[in-house]
Amino acid sequence: MAQAEQLKKVLIVYAHPAAQNSFNAAIRDRVADTLLASGVEVRIKDLVRENFDPVIREDEWVKGFHGVVPEECRVAQEEISWAEGLVFICPAWNFGIPAILKGYIDRVMMIPGFSLDMGEDGTDYRGGLLTQRVALVLQTLGSALSSATKYNNSSAYSSSIVSSLYYMGIKDVRLCQVWNLYQAANRSKEMEQILNDIEEEARALHAPRPTRPFITIAR
Ligand SMILES: Cc1cc2nc3c(=O)[nH]c(=O)nc-3n(C[C@H](O)[C@H](O)[C@H](O)COP(=O)(O)O)c2cc1C
Which long-range contacts (CB under 8 A, 24 or more apart) does 35-38 make? Predict the structure, then answer.
């Protein structure tokens, strides 16, 4: 696990269609500014503006059995290897994460030999390889936390990314879900408070926080 003084490089993976004028964009900017101000080198991977293709096509699928990864995915893996901290910023869409982020996990991250030790024949999961990373998932939700239980449960919105990060060996995975944005967006004071809470999470990225990994900002 990265220690406070060791965390120098953070990759922010941003998964929202709006480059500006969205709550996700405001979160991205606040996190990046906070980290930069504390001397962290920050890279932002903007999946939508990069036209990241989330679909595994047949050619890639077949070559994958021989350990061949497309060039764009190999480059994206280098960005992850560079980073000590990974921050994912996304909205909740239809009870999960946006497809572009799921595709990034499928095509770039969850790859045997890169993040997974699958044994010699590639079928025996022995553990994750990204053990020296800290990860923070920041997810915004339009609905109130109370409505989550009505249709499913709150973890369903983020379980694919959180479980994947654990599976890839990251022991310090934090999830911060901001609920009820539809209401809060009408009240600028609340929005500022939410961003201040998120700023605190960004600062806390430096310090291991195994006892409080899941944070809910619910209103
Ligand atoms: C296609 C789509 C699907 C959505 N699905 C959900 C959902 O399942 N649950 C929820 O709470 N909010 C849902 N929302 C609301 C978004 O999560 C919310 O608008 C977003 O978090 C606000 O952040 P933004 O201003 O950065 O877009 C959805 C929004 C869109 C556009």
Answer: 35/10, 35/202, 35/205, 38/203, 38/206
Task: Please work out whether the CB of residue 154 comes within 6 Å of at least one atom of ligand 1.
Answer: no
Residue of 12, 20, 23, 6 whose CA lies nearest to 187: 23
Q: Which of 16, 28, 94 to mutate to test the pocket of ligand 1 (most atoms within 8 A of CB)?
A: 94
Structure token digits, residue 137: 């998932």
Name the residue with tokens 């890279």: 43
Residue of minimum CA distance from atom 29 in ligand 1 = 93
SS3 104: helix
Question: Which residue, chain included where needed, has tokens 């930069």?
Answer: 36
CA of 143 to the centre of ligand 1 (A): 8
Structure tokens at 179: 């609920």
Q: Helix count (H) and strand count (E) of the chain?
A: 8, 8
Bridge pairing between strands 41-46 and 9-14: parallel
Q: Please, what are the averages of pLDDT over each run of 10 residues along the chain (219 residues)?
A: 68 97 94 96 98 97 91 98 98 96 98 94 92 94 83 82 96 90 70 91 81 61
Distance of CA 133 to the CA centre of its chain: 12
Q: Is 0.85 surpassed by the pTM of this model?
A: yes
CA angle 103, 208, 80 (to 5 degrees): 30
Whole-Å CA distances, 73 to 68, 111, 114, 215: 10, 10, 11, 31
